[in-house]
# Entry
Amino acid sequence: MTIRDLAIAKLQQIPESVLLEVNDFLDFVMHKHQSRIADTKQEENISKAWAKWFDEIDQLEIMTDEQNSEYQQLLLHKYRQQGLEL
# Structure
């Protein structure tokens, strides 16, 4: 006899007045386990999103000092045009 068969046999012996409480408890247990499954899936989704982000970051082109220097010069020029001294 399986655990399912045992549980069904016990349910058949319970008076009608108690069945509503048992049914509510079963709903609670099922909801609790569904929440755990959903939380696990959410953690997996977050892990996958971070892994994807790291993969994309690894594929970005690295700027050389020459490009960076040109950007810095343009930025300084823009600030100076606005009257700022650095």
In short: The chain has three helices and no strands. The chain has a mean pLDDT of 84. The first helix runs from residue 3 to 13. The radius of gyration is 32 Å.
